[in-house]
Write a structure and sequence with these properties.
Number of helices: 11
CATH architecture of the largest domain: Alpha-Beta Complex
Distance between the termini: 22 Å
CATH class of the largest domain: Alpha Beta
Largest sheet: 10 strands, mixed
CATH superfamily of the largest domain: Adenylosuccinate Synthetase, subunit A, domain 3
Shape: globular
Strand order of the largest sheet: 9-7-5-2-10-1-11-15-19-20
Oligomer: single chain
Helix content: 25-40%
Structural class: alpha/beta
């Protein structure tokens, strides 16, 4: 019963889609277990670029069953847009190729409006940087036991009743608390239900499907959305997402029960980025930041796949990386965007923090609180390389300086770097035994 988990080791946007797409050719199932369309996973196959927000990144492999787990929250409009885009690109989409858990929750237009109103109402210093896509309110409704589930679509009559009750309740909140114009319940109900009911074709008991497959020795690749540092419990709270982004979420998010895991692959960039507010000790500004971010002219530049917002950028932080390794049980790292560092005269890695005159190498409890302003990163500076690494396919073909940089990451994180991305395309990768 082989299980591999691919999890973000930073604040998301690490290139998980690219890594999952590469690994998907070796497995039977690729399953998303958390999050909603606030995720943005980019897959490049030849000259085609797919920007996926909900559907798992293994969808371009015809022999792979893709699963959307019960830990997800799903916007039907986004789902249908993705399906249409994939079909137009020649990708087969059918219930034999894609399944949605009956226990996943639905995101409605009311959730989106509430999300945006809540962020707008926060004072400038308290803004979280939400994508405004209704993720948080959908998870709130789930926890409050008043959410709409995908399985509700199987009974059209009761679904309409639940949907209208949900819209009416949200209207009261929007008017009373945020002084917003109420939604037109009739028109929104009709439009939303028309889209949502198309999901019924794909509904399965995915827990049973995966459990049976694992008993037969089939291989599951579980795909996380966002990154470890955005986890609701373990991330930089309150500047986090609303789901479990760490490896342990696989079991509850897919309904497969705790069982042995073959590999936990932590995906990390060769530097660091995040979208939205919150602490970022190694954040850079000025020309160096612009150099790492890019201009936005290329699909791989550091602009949010979901929001289009420019990402904050900084040097790789090994204190945070070690935390991600420990909290996920990461067994190996997949390093992305090594090629972006080519041409830099020197490269820095944060190895520790100075806090109130004391040097610490583990993530302090004050991280993410008001005291984190006292955190000063301690850097090692390594020589850069000038040689283009994009055509490298073997470890020996990397410049010695790049090899030393990766070796430093391994030493600081405590786990091996087994996969190295040297470009966005599926074949631009070095796999170490």
């Amino acid at each position: 019963m082989p299980i591999t988990i691919a999890v973000g080791a930073q604040w998301g946007d690490e290139g998980k889609g690219r890594m999952v797409d590469m690994l998907a050719g070796e497995v039977d199932f690729v399953a998303r277990y958390n999050g909603g369309d606030n995720a943005g996973h980019t897959v490049t196959v030849g000259d085609k670029i797919f920007k996926l927000h909900l559907i798992p990144s293994g969808i371009t492999h015809p022999g792979v069953m893709c699963i959307m787990g019960n830990g997800m929250v799903i916007n039907p409009a986004t789902f249908l847009d993705e399906v249409q885009t994939l079909i137009e690109a020649g990708i087969e989409i059918s219930p034999e190729h894609l399944a949605i858990s009956h226990a996943a929750h639905l995101i409605t237009p009311a959730h989106r409006l509430l999300d945006q109103a809540q962020e707008e109402a926060r004072s400038q210093g308290d803004k979280i940087g939400t994508t405004g896509r209704g993720i948080g309110p959908a998870y709130v409704d789930k926890a409050a036991r008043r959410g709409l589930r995908v399985g509700d679509l199987l009974n059209e009559e009761t679904f309409w009743q639940k949907l209208r009750a949900h819209l009416q309740e949200t209207n009261l909140l929007l008017q009373a608390l945020y002084h917003k114009t109420p939604m037109d319940i009739d028109s929104i109900s009709e439009e939303y239900a028309g889209k949502a009911l198309t999901l019924a074709t794909y509904i399965r008991d995915i827990g049973a499907l995966l459990r049976d497959g694992l008993k037969q020795g089939r291989h599951l690749l579980a795909e996380a959305a966002q990154g470890t540092l955005l986890d609701l419990d373990h991330g930089t709270y309150p500047f986090v997402t609303s789901s479990c982004t760490t490896a342990i979420g696989v079991f509850s998010g897919l309904g497969i029960g705790i069982q042995p895991v073959e590999r936990v692959i932590g995906i990390s960039k060769a530097f660091q980025t995040r979208v939205g507010a919150g602490p970022f000790p190694t954040e850079l500004a000025g020309n160096l930041a612009e150099r790492l971010r890019g201009t936005g002219a290329n699909p791989w530049d550091e602009f949010g796949t979901t929001t289009g917002r420019p990402r904050r950028v900084g040097w790789l932080d090994s204190v945070l990386l070690r935390f991600a390794v420990n909290v996920n049980g990461i067994t190996e790292l997949g390093l992305t965007k090594l090629d972006i560092l080519t041409g830099m005269p020197s490269i820095k890695i944060c190895t520790a923090y100075h806090i109130c005159g004391e040097k610490v190498v583990e993530l302090p409890m004050c991280f993410g609180t008001e005291q984190d302003e006292d955190i000063e990163p301690v850097y090692d500076e390594l020589p850069g390389w000038q040689q283009d690494v994009r055509k490298a396919r073997r470890w020996e073909e990397l410049p010695l300086e790049a090899q030393r940089f990766i070796g430093q990451i391994e030493e600081l994180s405590g786990v091996p770097v087994k996969t190295i991305s040297v470009g966005p395309e599926r074949s631009q990768v070095i796999i170490r035994s």
